Structure formats: structure tokens, C-alpha cells
UniProtKB/TrEMBL annotation:
It holds the Pfam family Peptidase_M48. GO terms for cellular component: membrane. Binds 1 zinc ion per subunit. It comes from uncultured Acidobacteriota bacterium. Transmembrane segments: none annotated. One of its GO terms (biological process) is proteolysis involved in protein catabolic process. The keyword Protease applies. This is Peptidase M48, Ste24p. Keywords: Hydrolase, Metal-binding, Metalloprotease, Protease, Zinc.
Length: 321
């Protein structure tokens, strides 16, 4: 018993240390000095600095290493989270995600979309194209364009390699040197796999791949907005999604997942998105707000007991395993 207890204490300590490290990586990033226009209090589109950005794995891990890292993190996440296996729900989210990914700035990566059984309103992405949404978020969105804005945002994190950049910055710390030394691809043998699984669990718990700076969140908003627009969705769906998050933060903050709590204020995101739409995106009545497929998804969500305030049907848990 003493050995198990000590192991648990060490794991909790490492997660605490890594959590502080992740927070430090976000809060400790250098800030950009205000330009003369901003210093004078005049308005400026905060997305201008992302407009001509290019994205690659240069200076980070190779794309194959990134994909392998994502695979290993996903394996561990499956052990710790309850994934929804219903083919109707999962298929819908996967198709919607692929539609957005194809018109993103990283269209050639294989993306994988998953649903986590959790009532909080949350979504996040891991390196290598792994994107997750909570059932609580699916229960909250009221149109396909709102859901597209969330998936587009998470795809934006993958495009900009935000999680991978956090991981790369963390290399200077000895707390995760064990995983670094595995070189991601050099995984072999039971003991090595066990060590990787333990380290991956600690990294996931600490938020190394999901806690981003507010500037990174703004960049993901920018990329997501343009991806959903390029895919034919009404970009105002992103505004209505932010309005929902703003209401939730006031009325029921416990429903907001931790990832959303670290984003810029919803009021700022609404202003940024509205300015970008006004200045750079032409609204067209043919842009998609909703689809029959979205209505079917919401119906299936209610059938499975995942809709807000829905009573879970008998034997639902056994069916989804």
C-alpha cells in the first residue's frame, strides 16, 4: 500500500508542477509593445497581424512526429475520458469537421473528430489533427454555423501548431524530458509504452497542449472564422456562439469547461469577429446557418439523453461503450 500511495503522491505532484509550467508558458510569453495607433486609443483590427501569416512545422517537430505524438496522447485520453461511440453523432461531427478542415490553411492533414461524454461546454484540440467536443457543447449550440465556429477554432489551433509550440517551449524543463527523450517515434517495449502513457497522462492533465495564450486564442478565432466562411457558413454563427458563452459565464459558469475559461473575454471576441466580418467578409443569403443534418444530430442527442435537462434513457451507458 505504501508503494501505491507514494506513486500517487508523485503523480499528483508532477501534475501540479506541470500545471504551473503550462500556466507559465502561457502567461510568461513576451508581450508586444503597443503601436502608436493603439497607444493613442484608436481602433485597430487585432487580426491584421495574422492576415499574412504562414504555417509549417519548421523549428518544431516534423509532421510525422507531430502525428505520432497526437496518436499517443489520444490513446491515453481514451483511457481517461468516456468517448461517445454512436455512429450517427460521431459521423456528423467528423463530416462537419472535415468540411472545415479541407478549406483551412492545413488541408492535407488527416483530422480526427471525437465526442466526449461530458455535460460541460468545452472543446479542445491536440497535435496531429485530433479534435474533441463535449456533449455539453453539442447540447448548447443552436445552429450548424455555431458548431462550425467552434470546430473551425479548434482546427485553427492545429493549423497554427499552438499545442506543439507549447510542447516545444517546455523542452527546457526537466519535468517532461522523459517524453522528449523517447523522440516520439522511438516507442517500443512494454516498459517504454507504460512510461509514455504515464507521461502523456500527466501532460494532458496539466494542459500543456490545451492552455494557450490569449493571443493564440485570437489567432484561432481568426483562422476559424475564415475557415467557416470559406466552407460556406454564415460567419455570424461565431458571434452568436460567443454570445452564448458570455451568457453562460454570467448565469452558469460551472457549465463552462476550463479551456473556455482561459479564452479572451467573450465581449472582446464578439467585437473582434464583428469587425472582421464588416471589414473583410461579404455576407450572402446563400451562406449556411443551419442544415437538416444538424436537426437530426440534435434529435439523436436527445434520444441518447445528452440534451440539456434530458433524462438519460435506460441502459444508455452500456449502449455507448
Amino acid at each position: 500500500m505504501r508503494i501505491g500511495s507514494d506513486a500517487q503522491k508523485r503523480r499528483r505532484l508532477s501534475i501540479l508542477v506541470l500545471g504551473n509550467l503550462a500556466l507559465g508558458l502561457v502567461l510568461g510569453l513576451p508581450t508586444r509593445a503597443l503601436g502608436p495607433v493603439e497607444a493613442a486609443g484608436q481602433s485597430r483590427n487585432p487580426y491584421d497581424k495574422y492576415r499574412r501569416a504562414s504555417y509549417s512545422n519548421e523549428g518544431l517537430y516534423s509532421e510525422q512526429e507531430e502525428i505520432r505524438l497526437g496518436e499517443e496522447l489520444h490513446k491515453q485520453l481514451q483511457k481517461e475520458q468516456r468517448l461517445v461511440r454512436d455512429p450517427e453523432l460521431v459521423g456528423y461531427v467528423q463530416r462537419l469537421g472535415e468540411r472545415l478542415a479541407r478549406v483551412s490553411k492545413r488541408p492535407d492533414l488527416d483530422y480526427h473528430f471525437f465526442i466526449i461524454e461530458d455535460p460541460t461546454v468545452n472543446a479542445f484540440a491536440l497535435p496531429g489533427g485530433y479534435v474533441y467536443v463535449h456533449t455539453g457543447l453539442l447540447a448548447t449550440v443552436e445552429s450548424e454555423s455555431e458548431l462550425a465556429s467552434v470546430l473551425g477554432h479548434e482546427i485553427g489551433h492545429v493549423v497554427a501548431r499552438h499545442g506543439l509550440k507549447n510542447f516545444k517551449r517546455a523542452q527546457q524543463y526537466q519535468f517532461i524530458v522523459g517524453l522528449i527523450n523517447l523522440s516520439i517515434g522511438a516507442i517500443g517495449g512494454e516498459s517504454t509504452a507504460a512510461r509514455l502513457g504515464q507521461t502523456a497522462s500527466q501532460l494532458l492533465a496539466a494542459g500543456i497542449f490545451t492552455k494557450h495564450s490569449r493571443d493564440a486564442e485570437r489567432e484561432a478565432d481568426f483562422l476559424g472564422l475564415h475557415a467557416m466562411y470559406a466552407a460556406g457558413y454564415d460567419p455570424r454563427g461565431m458571434i452568436s456562439m460567443f454570445e452564448k458563452l458570455e451568457r453562460l459565464s454570467r448565469q452558469n459558469p460551472d457549465l463552462l469547461g476550463f479551456v473556455f475559461r482561459t479564452h479572451p473575454p467573450a465581449s472582446e471576441r464578439i467585437r473582434n469577429t464583428q469587425a472582421e466580418i464588416t471589414d473583410h467578409l461579404a455576407l450572402d443569403p446563400r451562406l449556411v446557418r443551419d442544415t437538416p443534418a444538424f436537426s437530426l444530430m440534435k434529435h439523436r442527442l436527445r434520444e441518447l439523453g445528452f440534451a440539456r435537462n434530458a433524462e438519460p434513457p435506460a441502459r444508455r451507458r452500456r449502449r455507448l461503450r
